[in-house]
Design a protein that fits this description.
heterodimer; A: mainly beta; seven-stranded mixed sheet; B: mainly beta; five-stranded mixed sheet; about 55% strand
């Protein structure tokens, strides 16, 4: 138990569906992250939020839409995905982001399969 | 592009042997961190070394940092089958990870 909870753990969706991934942290952190891990590819940093403000968007396609309503919750809204978007999506949190970042705490991930 | 790059990509050793993996990075840092990932799970933080530290220990883990060479190494001593996992490094200024080192410890 890392203090970061991701739901759902597994998700299968069609290319025309709309779904959301949820991440919640109980650590009192101010920064939250989304990473994508595809088979045989490095972990890709997708988005970073610091004090609810998006501070990084690494050229992620618009079919991925993040939302950070408060420092404890982070969502990734998914729509019109492609099969190549199938991956493990990892959420993480840290005290702050953007230099002198300390330890990241990761959730167990949401395994997404796009049919 | 990622800041931390690990090598080798894969390492296979026998139980009881030591495992060494390396990390290189590109820009100046305040700290460097090592993480472990069991297959299909989230990453777990192992150890953080600050830029003014040269070596740090935690149990069977020993991490070194050479800021002049922009490199770090992670040594796992007396390895166990349970150490089988992927190991990643990241630097504090962007928290990007490389492809990792896949360590297999054979019983």
């Amino acid at each position: 138990e890392t203090g970061v909870t991701q739901t759902p753990r597994h998700l299968v969706m069609g290319m025309t569906n709309k779904k959301s991934l949820k991440c919640e942290q109980h650590l009192g952190h101010n920064a939250m992250y989304w990473y994508k891990q595809s088979a045989k590819k490095p972990l890709e940093l997708m988005f970073v939020y610091n004090f609810k403000e998006q501070t990084e968007n690494n050229s992620v396609p618009s079919r991925f839409s993040p939302e950070c309503p408060n420092s404890s919750h982070l969502f990734l809204h998914l729509h019109t995905l492609q099969p190549e978007d199938s991956a493990l999506y990892l959420c993480a949190s840290s005290q702050v982001a953007g230099g002198r970042t300390g330890e990241l705490f990761f959730g167990e991930g949401s395994r997404l399969t796009v049919l | 592009s990622q800041q931390g790059e690990e090598d080798p990509q894969a390492l296979s050793i026998q139980e009881g042997e030591n495992a060494t993996m390396n990390c290189s990075y590109k820009t100046s840092i305040n700290n460097l961190q090592w993480y472990r990932q069991n297959s299909g799970r989230g990453l777990v933080h192992l150890i953080l070394i600050r830029s003014n530290e040269r070596e740090k220990h935690s149990g069977r883990l020993r991490v070194t940092l050479d800021t002049s060479k922009k490199s770090s190494s992670l040594l796992i001593t007396a390895s166990r089958a349970a150490d089988t996992a992927s190991y990643f490094c990241a630097t504090d200024n962007d928290m990007r990870f490389g492809a990792g080192t896949r360590l297999t410890v054979k019983p």
